[in-house]
Amino acid sequence: MNPITQQEINKAAWGACDTFRGVVDPSIYKDYVLTMLFLKYISDVWKDHKARYEAEYPDAPELVAAMMQQEAFALPEGAGFDALHKRRFEAGNGERIDKALHAIEEANGTKLKDVFQDISFNSNKLGDEEQKNDILRHLLEDFVKPALDLRPSRVGALDIIGGAYEYLISRFAATAGKKAGEFYTPAEVSELMARLVDPQEGDDICDPTCGSASLLMKCGRLIRERTGTKRYALFGQEAIGSTWALAKMNLFLHGEENHQVEWGDTIRNPKLRTSDDMLRHFDVVVANPPFSLDKWGTEAADTDKFARFRRGIPPKTKGDYAFILHMIETLKPGSGRMAVVVPHGVLFRGSTEGKIRQKLVEENLLAAVIGLPEKLFFGTGIPAAILVFRKRKADDSVLFIDASREFVAGTNQNVLSEANLAKIVDTHQARETVDKYAYRATKAEIAENDFNLNIPRYVDTFEEEAEIDLKAVRSERARLKDDLAELEARMEGYLRELGLA
């Protein structure tokens, strides 16, 4: 049997979406397709391992049952994909799938607690009973195709399943418009942020607005590629229930067992706390929070029990600094470092934001400001910036990088190439001024600019235009006038010949 490729699995999984197209909006059907992929995978793993144990111990069913109790996921009788597929022509597909998911959730205790509560295959979002049953029959048939036989003995490494899940999420983001930013950060931006914070073996890594957890996993992957170990822990929080569920499934499908991802509003109710009810601290904090979030929780900010807003309370209609201040408060005193995506307004808006910005610079927490190209992010064409903070810095300078003009242009989205990424990371590490690209500013220079961090104030990208030779221009103008006069005389002659003059 030829080994299955990532591309084949991706294509087959994306093909399953055809069942919904034209009937259900992608923002709705993405949850059904991704949940079905997860169910199919854990069912195929269970079936594969059980067959292997039964072949090894044909006369010891009790031993096989005991070994199956040690599986990563428990699969109750009748709750697996094959049982659902077998009954696909019967009425009640939606109810059966929901019951199976509920049974799996119950059987796996805290591991999958509440993961499926925000998804209902029996929802009227899929149409009336007849249409819904038909759609779900087609979906079950899509996932039984040979390309989506996800048994480990066939597909090998877990990464190929995680890769398919990540591929689907990125494709959904490309079609989801403004809502895409709620669950997905483009892969190359995640890669850039991971490299900027340089995660190390043993680090605790957190994303307080984790979406589908792609940014967290990029940090983990970087450590694995460098060290070959999985000695790190991933933490996150996500406010939207269905997106939190995506994150949990995504982490499991990538083999990231050592994680704690909570569901809830990070600003109003941070869930990642210590046993004595203080905010938990991390070596690395990364995030792509919602831009300028309205109604972020200002009403409770002045009585915040964690004193996150002691530098100032951000404006009620712009929550950017609420997330920044929360993230800074969760950094470990020695090793803490963070990268956060922000809209450019964060760099120069006045009032309370200006005062917060001033305090962050004066406390020597800000390490770098990096301007990105426009149209990198799904759902918005505006250019963004990355702010890098460190709890411990070698000096009080801030590095400004203008990377906004170097990218690979795309029809709908621009992307950063590996060369673009490497240049940003190398410049960030060197912390030296580079003509028309980067500038290392002292704290005094930033103070002179009233703590305005707008990148053009520091990085001069002005290109002088070539000098114009006025003599050559005059002579060319005279020649063109002569040519025009000659053409007009010739045209006059033609018109006379035709009797039209």
Automatic annotation (TrEMBL):
InterPro entries: D12N6_MeTrfase_N, DNA_Adenine_Mtase, DNA_methylase_A-5, DNA_methylase_N6_adenine_CS, Restrct_endonuc_T1M, SAM-dependent_MTases_sf, T1MK-like_N_sf. Residues 463-497 form a coiled coil. Signal peptide: none annotated. It catalyses: a 2'-deoxyadenosine in DNA + S-adenosyl-L-methionine = an N(6)-methyl-2'-deoxyadenosine in DNA + S-adenosyl-L-homocysteine + H(+). Residues 159-465 form the DNA methylase adenine-specific domain. Keywords: Coiled coil, Methyltransferase, Restriction system, S-adenosyl-L-methionine, Transferase. Belongs to the N(4)/N(6)-methyltransferase family. This is site-specific DNA-methyltransferase (adenine-specific). It comes from Salipiger abyssi.
